[in-house]
Design the sequence.
C-alpha cells in the first residue's frame, strides 16, 4: 500500500501539522476541476408578475373613475374594491392566480383574499350580489358599477386571460367585461 503526500496548503512560515494516521491512496484518480469552467448559476427567482406591466392601484382606480364617470376618487375606489371582492369569489384555479398576478398588488389582495363561492352565480345574480354590498344600489346602478370595473380589466390583464376567465364563468359575464356575448341561446 502506498501513501501519497499532498502538497501542504499552509504558508511556509507555519509549521506543518504532524501526521496522525496513514490514509490509503484512492484507487482511481479524480481530476481537479478546471479553473475555466464556471460554477453553475443559481436558479432565477420566481417571477410573480410581469415586472413593468403591472399597473398601479391608483391607475386602476382612475380608469374605473373615468369609465364609470364617478365624481370622486374615493367613490371609484369603493366600487372597485366591492366589485373585485365579488369577482374574487367566482374566479378560481389558475385563472384566479393569473388575474391576481396581472392586477395591482392591492387589487390582487382583494381578489385573492376571497373564499371561493360554493356555486357560480349567473351574471344577473352576480350583479344582484354586488347591489347587496352597496348601500342604496339598485340592479341598474349595480350593473353600471360592475361594468365600470370589469370593463377596464381586459386591457390590463390581456385578451387571453379575459377569455379564460369568461370561459370558466356562466354565460352572460362577457357584457360585464365590455365584450359582446356571442354565446348561442339555449
Sequence:
Amino acid at each position: 500500500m502506498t501513501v501519497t503526500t499532498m502538497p501542504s496548503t499552509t504558508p511556509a512560515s507555519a509549521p506543518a501539522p504532524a501526521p496522525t494516521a496513514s490514509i490509503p491512496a484512492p484507487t482511481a484518480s479524480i481530476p481537479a476541476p478546471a479553473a475555466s469552467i464556471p460554477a453553475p448559476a443559481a436558479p432565477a427567482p420566481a417571477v410573480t408578475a410581469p415586472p413593468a406591466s403591472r399597473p398601479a392601484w391608483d391607475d386602476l382606480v382612475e380608469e374605473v373613475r373615468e369609465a364609470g364617470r364617478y365624481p370622486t376618487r374615493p367613490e371609484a375606489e369603493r366600487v372597485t374594491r366591492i366589485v373585485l371582492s365579488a369577482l374574487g369569489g367566482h374566479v378560481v384555479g389558475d385563472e384566479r392566480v393569473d388575474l391576481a398576478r396581472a392586477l395591482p398588488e392591492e387589487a390582487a389582495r382583494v381578489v385573492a383574499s376571497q373564499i371561493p363561492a360554493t356555486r357560480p352565480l349567473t351574471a344577473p345574480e352576480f350583479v344582484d350580489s354586488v347591489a347587496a354590498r352597496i348601500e342604496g344600489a339598485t340592479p341598474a346602478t349595480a350593473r353600471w358599477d360592475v361594468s365600470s370595473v370589469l370593463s377596464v380589466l381586459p386591457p390590463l390583464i390581456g385578451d387571453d386571460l379575459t377569455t379564460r376567465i369568461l370561459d370558466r364563468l356562466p354565460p352572460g359575464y362577457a357584457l360585464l367585461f365590455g365584450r359582446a356575448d356571442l354565446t348561442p341561446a339555449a
